[in-house]
């Protein structure tokens, strides 16, 4: 239904748009959904930052209802990605500021796009532990992104006057469901975030740290897409 509406009304640059409050990322966030974004969601293609932000906003409301905002926080994907998000030092500092504005014990859900692929990093800055989730189920990431996250925790420790660990502990979630199709990584990290947000006991890491045969069915992914569409639809007249 949303796709049919978008085909009619989202032409000539028209968008579904809103400004989200600073509660979500620690700063106000303007977000726009274009017709191409609705098309990508409908046809299970590569999703945009804006589409992902809308789903994170939906999950924020879920956490608010279940009184879990003290446990989980979100980080803006426009501040983390490899393209057009600033240099590595700027991104590390941005992450550190977000940790500093969080609550004790919170974990931060950090979507990262390497340029053509979405991955999810879950950072516990207080314990200096990072869980890594690649929908292609590759091993722990190395290079720029790992360095940025490590540096962000060091900057955060310096701001808190803490000594911290010598080495940040990274854990590969080898048991996560693997993506199906070559453009579906964004949908899979949306589902990872959903699972984390719905786990009241926060035992998701124990389930996913070891190799397993967990998988998402098409019905599972369709439920995520339907929640996204229902949430986005409320902004049609904004």
TrEMBL record:
Cross-referenced InterPro entries: Papain-like_cys_pep_sf (IPR038765), Peptidase_C48_C (IPR003653)
Residue ranges of every copy of the Ubiquitin-like protease family profile domain listed in the record: 31-196
Statement: the UniProt record of this protein carries the keyword Endoplasmic reticulum: no
Keywords assigned: Hydrolase, Protease
UniProt KW Nucleotide-binding keyword: no
Organism (species): Rosa chinensis
Protein name according to UniProt: Putative Ulp1 protease family catalytic domain-containing protein
Organismal lineage: Eukaryota, Viridiplantae, Streptophyta, Embryophyta, Tracheophyta
GO biological process: proteolysis
One Gene Ontology term of the molecular function aspect: cysteine-type peptidase activity
UniProt cross-references to PANTHER family, sorted A to Z: OS10G0338966 PROTEIN-RELATED, TRANSPOSASE, PTTA_EN_SPM, PLANT
Family in the record: Belongs to the peptidase C48 family.
